[in-house]
Hints:
The chain is built from 8 helices and 2 strands. It is mainly alpha-helical. Strands 1-2 form a two-stranded antiparallel sheet. A hairpin with a 7-residue loop joins strand 1 (92-96) and strand 2. Helix 3 (40-57) packs across helix 4 and helix 5 packs across helix 8.
Amino acid sequence: MTEQELVQCAQSGDQGAFGRLVEANQGKIYSLCYRMTGNPDDAADLTQEAFLNAWRGLAKFGGQSAFSTWLYRLASNACIDFLRREKRRLALSMTMEEDGEEDYQADLPDERWSPERELERKEAHQALQEGLAALSPEHREVLLLRETQGLSYQEIAQALELEEGTVKSRIARARMALKDYLQKDGNFFGSPSSK
């Protein structure tokens, strides 16, 4: 059966068809989750969450993209939500010792999440979003699939029904156009150019 046929069977309630979709995609989804979290246990949990979300939302999947691309989006969203929750829990700890007193834990704020850094991140994110919006739809699509979804050139070519060489050239052009946009706007601080 093709992926599309399996999806249609699964949408009709066939758990076996959905199981085959899971088997076909679990390695790629786990790999994405692991790359995003850096922790194998978290990646396994998030992979399960992505497939659970896929099962629950299967009726809403309209087939505008490949099923695997939709799964990448679900897994990516689950990882982003997880990382946001984890960020809130992070705090640096340090054992302090006072003269004649017992050691105690001092919680130091994690400066990575200071208001200034958050503002910088928001401004950079806004500039990036504007830069992406300035790209052609074809360039934006391949760049997002590569950079945010972590798809290989071959996977993107299959998902978009393009030649792999076309995917590579579109990604290269998209990166250059985005870099030019950000530099022109004063929002790109790459390595300084030699004069």
